[in-house]
Specification:
alpha+beta; six-stranded antiparallel beta sheet; 2 helices
Length: 146
């Protein structure tokens, strides 16, 4: 297992910034294989103001986005020399399922596995977990930019 990454290292890999950076730490990374990221869900997240004020729930689309960001770190850090420095952009999501709501105070663990890496695209599968229970799952496809 390779070493995890802190927020500063994540920001060197991903182009996202607050409030759209949805990964706080990488806790496990195996180049070309798998990655586990962490998102601490806090009540002061901007999306909770409208989703929903009386019952704050993290929007499912943002859970999948967080999975995509963690997957983007895996794909970027696993790139061959010919792809170094190229942006990776997500092209599709399949088999997305939401199992339980994610609420303020949760620690969202995002586990992604590289299924297939080709010259111009990658395919990954992953799950999001809270307290060891799956809250979401998806397959993601991405392409390397020019």
């Amino acid at each position: 297992m390779d070493i995890g990454l802190d927020l500063k290292s994540i920001m060197e890999i991903l182009p996202h910034r607050f409030p759209f950076l949805l990964v706080d730490r990488i806790v496990e990374f195996v180049k070309g294989e798998r990655i586990v990221g962490l998102k601490n869900v806090t009540v002061n997240e901007p999306f909770f103001q409208g989703h929903f004020p009386s019952t704050p729930i993290m929007p499912g689309v943002l859970i999948v986005e967080a999975m995509g960001q963690v997957g983007g770190i895996l794909a970027t850090a696993s790139q061959s020399a010919e792809h170094k420095g190229r942006l990776i952009m997500f092209m599709g999501f399949d088999k997305v399922r939401f199992r339980k709501p994610v609420i303020p105070g949760d620690q969202l663990f995002l586990e992604m596995e590289l299924l297939n890496q080709r010259t111009k695209a990658v395919k990954m599968a992953g799950v999001a977990k809270v307290d060891g229970k799956i809250v979401a799952e998806a397959q993601l496809m991405a392409a390397y930019g020019e």
